[in-house]
Design goal:
CATH superfamily of the largest domain: Aldolase class I
Shape: globular
CATH topology of the largest domain: TIM Barrel
CATH architecture of the largest domain: Alpha-Beta Barrel
Distance between the termini: 52 Å
Radius of gyration: 27 Å
Strand content: 15-25%
Structural class: alpha/beta
Number of helices: 21
Strand order of the largest sheet: 3-4-5-8-9-10-11-12
Largest sheet: 8 strands, parallel, barrel
Number of domains: 3
Helix content: 25-40%
Length: 674
């Protein structure tokens, strides 16, 4: 039963709750994230301080993981629970987190066929059956019947190790396509023994894991399980089967159900910006309808207002804001103190988290460049307060201004446009990308809460800088579109992607976009969706049955423009992170956008564009040609100020065109240096 905490914002979100004998001060959970801060499996100062900072920020429960339970089921850089030698380091972690006020749990992890053989010394990973993993490209071996109890025992042994390390609870990982899922799903379980065939048999492995863990930890120790409320796999499980499994788990003594979405192999996006906020809360609500234990809702919940709504409406008892707390460790503290307007929200860009993990690099964050550096980077007062002039109000400039002001400098920020945000504002027009504009708004809110003087519609030339007499200048003047040297490029039907996205230029019905980079593909999405029906109209047509689904589908998938993208290289979207690129390409395909690779525009004509494809020239008809050929840094002012100002920092696109993650980080570093 939910009890309100009166007198504070978000009274349902900040009401206490008990999970077995574990008392939590609020209902915000930071669920397990792979961070890459423990390259040898051993707890590091980096990991300790990362989580300690989140604890001090007010989160109720932190779940650390995945923590491999044996030597066969993990990947590089995971926090290990497979041997007693890891306990001293884990004790240091649990003491630090509990010292900050939060509770801490360990996630028990066995990946099964999602394990790369290279990660386990070339040995073959195991699973329920020998079904190829699309994630690794490898075929696992099927566990022999007499091996199964030993694998299950490893979960129980790791749970006891977690108790000895000081964890307040354990979470069994039964989602995302890992080993328990592999036994549960008919896609991966082809067995004909007691662990295969019927749903009752396929549930057996997971149920026995829970029984063994419960026996090992006793009746009073909290046991959590993370489940997929829907596999989102063709031929897999929907919420119906998940409810059956959850109901049986409830009888086995699970104390909290952590409900997420599909597998790593699913083609339904789970965590990208394309997924609406709180899109999968209905999965938690489905599980809540059949279990007695509390239920935790997951995926794309990044704001206290949304969390409050989910709990108040009875859809779930708790919410996870894992990446939300990566982005802002003090999200709970700001919310409970009435400062929610100063929260730096996760915008699901994936640039600093998932994309970095896929590159085997440690996690950071676009909106929080300090993430992962808490252990060795402090925002300390400057030895001497300086007059700092920041030129440019994009992400790099705003972050630099915020950081310099937080350190006690007197900061003046000037921006020649009438508003702050820079290129981030272009995303307002792009389907599935609008949320990144929030990153600009959050920066602006924090900037305006600091003693920073902001002057808009002001161009900072040499005379302006001379009159301002700063001790240091941070140049964040951004970039300008690059226009390639192509015959006929000055044709009036040729426009830049920036002009299209900003609304300065309109286009015709037949559009050719030159450049298959992120900007080119996102411009294609913006244009291709014009003329499709909105979500509100879709809802109206479906609920009133005004149109059949057969007639609605074309209205969703085909706009009023024919869009073609031309890319010189053999692959479009190479500058888009791997966790996001596939969703962009899928959307382009759905909207009927044609993407031509290994082709070069050589001439613009009245009729369209002349392409060179494999040495042959052909005309591609177009009413409008959009140029998305990269950008050029705007930084001439830096050279002009060399004799005027002794300390100059050039950051973001002004230094070299790059993505927002790098730009924000450079702005932050400049703010620390001045």
């Amino acid at each position: 039963m939910k009890t309100q905490t009166h007198g504070v914002p978000y009274p349902f979100l900040f009401s206490p709750i008990r999970i077995n004998h574990m008392h939590l001060t609020n209902r915000i959970v930071m669920t397990a994230m792979h961070l890459g801060y423990t390259p040898k499996g051993e707890v590091t100062d980096q990991l300790v301080e990362f989580y300690a900072e989140r604890s001090r920020g007010g989160v109720g429960l932190i779940i650390v993981g995945g923590c491999p339970v044996d030597e066969y089921g993990g990947m590089a850089g995971m926090v290990s629970l497979n041997h007693d030698r890891f306990i001293p380091g884990l004790q240091k972690l649990t003491r630090a987190v509990k010292g900050g006020g939060a509770r801490i749990a360990a996630q028990l992890y066995q990946a099964g066929r999602y394990t790369h053989s290279a990660m386990i010394g070339g040995r073959k990973p195991f699973s329920s059956s020998a079904v190829r993993s699309k994630l690794t490209g490898e075929i696992p071996r099927a566990l022999e019947l007499d091996e199964i109890p030993g694998v299950q025992d490893k979960f129980a042994e790791a749970a006891v190790r977690a108790i000895n390390a000081g964890f307040d609870a354990v979470e069994i990982l039964g989602s995302a396509g890992y080993l328990i899922c592999q036994f549960l799903s008919p896609i991966t379980n082809l067995r004909d023994d007691a662990y295969g065939g019927s749903l009752a048999n396929r549930m057996r492995f997971g149920l026995e894991v829970v029984e063994k863990v419960r026996r090992a930890v006793g009746p009073d120790y909290p046991v959590i399980i993370r489940l997929a409320g829907n596999d989102f796999m063709e031929g897999g499980h929907t919420n119906k089967e998940a409810r059956i499994f959850a109901s049986e788990l409830d009888k086995k003594g699970i104390d909290l159900f952590d409900i997420t979405g599909g597998w790593h192999e699913t083609r339904v996006p789970q965590l990208t910006m394309h997924v609406p906020q709180g899109a999968f809360r209905y999965l938690a609500q489905g599980i809540k309808s059949v279990v007695r234990a509390p239920v935790l809702a997951s995926n794309r919940i990044n704001d206290p207002s949304l969390g409050e709504e989910i709990i108040r409406q009875g859809e779930a008892d708790m919410v996870t804001m894992a990446r939300g707390l990566l982005a802002d460790p003090y999200l709970p503290d700001k919310a409970v103190k009435g400062k929610a307007n100063l929260i730096y929200h996760c915008v699901a860009c994936n640039q600093g988290c998932f994309d970095r993990i896929f590159q085997l690099r440690p996690v950071t964050c676009l909106v929080n460049p300090r993430a992962g550096l808490e252990w060795n980077t402090k925002i300390a007062p400057a030895p001497r307060a300086k007059k700092v002039l920041v030129i440019g109000g994009g992400p790099a400039g705003m972050k630099a201004a915020c950081t310099a002001a937080e350190r006690g400098h007197k900061v003046l920020l000037v921006e020649k446009a009438s508003g702050l945000g820079g290129q981030l504002l272009f995303n307002e027009s792009i389907p599935g990308r609008k949320e990144i504009v929030r990153a600009a708004r959050d920066l602006e809110n924090n900037l305006r809460a600091l003693p920073v003087e902001i002057r808009l519609s002001t161009e900072a030339n040499v005379s302006f800088v001379e009159s301002a007499a700063p001790d240091a200048v941070i140049i964040a003047t951004g970039a300008t579109p690059s226009v390639p040297d192509i015959a006929g490029i000055r044709n009036e039907k040729v426009v830049t992607a920036w002009d299209v996205l900003s609304g300065k230029k309109e286009v015709g019905r037949h559009v050719v976009i030159i450049g298959g980079n992120a900007v080119g593909l996102e411009t294609a999405l913006y244009l291709a969706q014009q003329g499709t029906i909105s979500p509100e109209v879709l809802h109206f047509l479906v609920t009133t049955r005004a149109e059949s689904m057969e007639s609605i589908e074309p209205l969703l998938n085909k706009g009023n423009k024919n869009v073609t993208v031309v890319e010189m290289t053999g692959r479009a979207g190479q500058d888009i992170g791997s966790s996001t690129r596939w969703t962009v390409m899928a959307e382009l395909k759905r909207l009927g956008v044609s993407v031509i690779t290994s082709s070069k525009a050589v001439e613009m004509k009245e009729e369209g564009v002349i392409l060179d494809r494999d040495g042959k020239r052909e005309l591609l008809a177009a009413d409008t040609v959009v140029i998305a050929a990269g950008s050029l840094s705007v930084n001439a002012l830096a050279g002009e100020l060399e004799d005027l100002v002794s300390e100059i920092h050039v950051v973001g696109d002004a230094r070299n065109p790059r993505n927002a993650l790098e730009a924000t980080r450079e702005g932050w570093l400049a703010g620390l240096k001045v």
